[in-house]
Amino acid sequence: MVKNVTKEQILTKKIKLNNGVLMPQFGLGTYLMENENQAYHAVFVALESGYRLIDTAQYYNNEVEIGRAVKDFLQKHPDVKRSDIFITSKIWNSDHEYHKAKTAFFGILKRLQVDYLDLCLIHWPTKNRFECWKFLEEVYQQGKVKAIGVSNFKVHHLEELLKKAKVKPMVNQIETHPGFNQLDVVKFCQKNDIAVTSWRTMMAGKTNDIPLLVDLADKYQTSTTQIALKWAWQLNEIIIPKSVTPKRIVENPNIGNFTLTDQEMAAINNLPQKRLGPDPDDKEVWKDFID
One of 40, 51, 60, 140 is an active-site residue; which one? Predict the structure, then answer.
């Protein structure tokens, strides 16, 4: 019989990255939190609730508010150290040339009011991604970032990077959810000791459209979004559900009182697959950034 775990155990569980850094497996995503009150309050509520992973990006335009929330939380809770909070940010596509990446990175630190980042990612695989990676390797060696990685990289992008990189990426953040599992990328990452962070895990509110998830939610007396979160969790993916609603921020980590069976996991993995976000290889979407 599988032992239930508490919300606190969910929020304190960590994934060991390939360089030994420990990254919380459950955190708060902040995409589309451009209103300063939304970002500030969501992050503050999350930290008060026990979250210790905050995911943002240069492109999200909310790093100032997030930095302010982290600073205020630490001042309120002197027993919590900066090193207890894991902050991820990403360098946007237009800044992947070496010198632009350098300016962008130190701009991120300034906006967040931090001396270092816990994790910095290349946001999308642009034509200048190798220049950006070179910069990230250097700043990683200097200790200004504890771990480096990529986002939205497919298998062929990872293969190319691994051939050129001096430092192996520690994380690949990709779109994964019950309707688009990207198991080919996930398995490649697992084989190469690259942790996977899932974005859009809750399918942007579309989980109730999948009868299997509705049935499982009924069986386990939970929500379809929490079924989706637990599915990714059981695949050992890092999950960063986004919400600006305090009640949902508090409730989202309540995924420890049930466990999906192997058969249920397989059934979810066999659902029809459809990407909800943009394809990294779509030359029309990324015409300014990819070859």
Answer: 60
Q: What is the mean pLDDT of each run of 10 residues along the chain (291 residues)?
A: 81 98 98 86 98 97 96 98 98 98 98 98 98 98 98 98 98 98 98 98 96 98 97 98 96 96 98 96 93 76
Q: Is 60 a catalytic residue?
A: yes
Radius of gyration of the chain (CA): 18
Distance CA(22)–CA(165), nearest Å, equals 22
Q: At 258, phi and psi to the nearest 5?
A: -155, 160
Mention every residue, 6+ apart, whose C-beta is less than 8 A from residue 275.
Answer: 175, 180
Neighbours of 76 (CB within 10 A): 11
Q: State the amino acid at position 200 in one-letter form.
A: R
Mean pLDDT rounded to a whole number for the chain: 96
CA distances from 173 to 20, 91, 184, 213, 228 (A): 18, 13, 14, 24, 17
Q: Are 290 and 197 in contact (CB under 8 A)?
A: no
